[in-house]
TrEMBL record:
UniProt keyword annotation of ATP-binding present: yes
Keyword Disulfide bond among UniProt keywords: no
Source superkingdom: Bacteria
Protein name: Putative ATP-dependent DNA helicase
Keywords of this entry: ATP-binding, DNA damage, DNA repair, Helicase, Hydrolase, Nucleotide-binding
Organism of this sequence: Nostocoides australiense Ben110
């Protein structure tokens, strides 16, 4: 890759890249396979929330009725369980909308595409939700529908949230936008019983003791992504890695060593 070429960077991919560069490379090349099971259900929940506005749980459930059949699940207990799981996630989303409103946040956009450039990095993607307050500040919301979540100690330097904040700072959502942080909203099994404690927020860059950390992280990741060496890192993610059979650090991928 020429030294002057832009490097495409997806905020969501930065988490994988930070934990294991080889996994990032292989999944980027198609190693993840098609979305099935819980992944497909999570995608459907995202679509319902994008179309449903800040509706209550009943209204969101009505929208789910219109699209649930697209999953193509057979009749039976598995389908009923998946339906209940989706309804639970939408109920948590509705509770979050009420919680956010009580704190002065209101929806500005949903499923908003964006692009921003930082050095060689061209950050692009779609944010689940943008919120604004009476001061016109903007914060980015990312819905999580899985069963795991980052530790509280890791939020301050969470790469995906940091990339979203960089996008705001670089004018992706308006040239005069003032960032107010970025937030993970847990809707899946990682959520708690209360909306307030299912929210994982990252401090606005301007309030961080190292306000340039996220810009540096994105630029460093882009530089490494443009390289030619991608090492495997053994860690917690190995248990659920979709490309373990191609990994020289795993017994399943031993033939590659």
């Amino acid at each position: 890759m020429p030294g002057s070429a832009f490097v495409p960077v997806s905020p969501s991919s930065l988490v994988t890249f930070a934990s294991c560069r080889l996994r990032w490379l292989l999944t980027r090349a198609g190693g993840d396979g098609p979305a099935i099971g819980s992944a497909a259900l999570g995608t459907l929940v995202h679509e319902v929330l994008a179309d449903g506005g800040d509706a209550d749980a009943a209204a969101l459930g009505g929208r789910l009725d219109l699209s649930f059949g697209r999953l193509g699940l057979p009749a039976g207990w598995i389908t009923r369980a998946k339906r209940a799981e989706a309804e639970a996630m939408l109920g948590r989303a509705a509770a979050y909308f009420e919680h956010a409103a009580s704190l002065g946040w209101r929806r500005l956009a949903a499923e908003q595409q964006f692009t921003a450039t930082v050095g060689r990095a061209q950050i692009s993607g779609i944010v689940d939700r943008l919120e604004t307050d009476d001061d016109g500040r903007i914060r980015v919301i990312d819905y999580k529908t899985g069963s795991s979540k980052p530790a509280a100690a890791d939020l301050a330097r969470h790469p995906q949230l940091g990339a979203y904040q960089v996008a705001v700072a670089e004018g992706a959502f308006g040239p005069d936008a003032i960032g107010a942080g970025a937030v993970l909203v847990q809707l899946g099994k990682a959520a708690t019983t209360k909306a307030a404690t299912s929210v994982q927020a990252q401090t606005p860059l301007a309030d961080d003791p190292e306000p340039g950390w996220a810009h540096d992280a994105v630029a460093d990741a882009a530089h490494a992504m443009a390289g030619s060496r991608f090492t495997a890192t053994v860690g917690e993610g190995c248990r659920t890695c979709p490309v373990a059979t191609s990994c020289p650090a795993r017994p399943e991928g031993g033939m590659l060593t």
